Amino acid sequence: MIPARYSASRFPGKLMQDLGGKSVILRTYQATVTTGLFDEVYVVTDSDIIYNEIVSNGGKSIMSIKEHESGSDRIAEAVQNIEADIVVNVQGDEPFRTRKLSTGP
To answer: 4 - beta bridge partners?
Structure first.
């Protein structure tokens, strides 16, 4: 799960900033999918802009309510309707944190 809020207090719209031709949130989503570590990857957001960015690029997104104190709370709302053994919180503004695992030297 990647919690994504458009109206961040320090840098509103940060996740939609262009980063080499793609938005930060789209790069984060695609990098997380590319790791191959997860059965499903979702962006959980309160923003139509972010939701549409992910869905229009073939990704999966879940709309949440706006009033959450943290990204973890946003994820907790989203997973109430999802069957999962493990849930991982991936930060939406860290598109380079995820790396594909190497299977060889």
So the answer is: 45
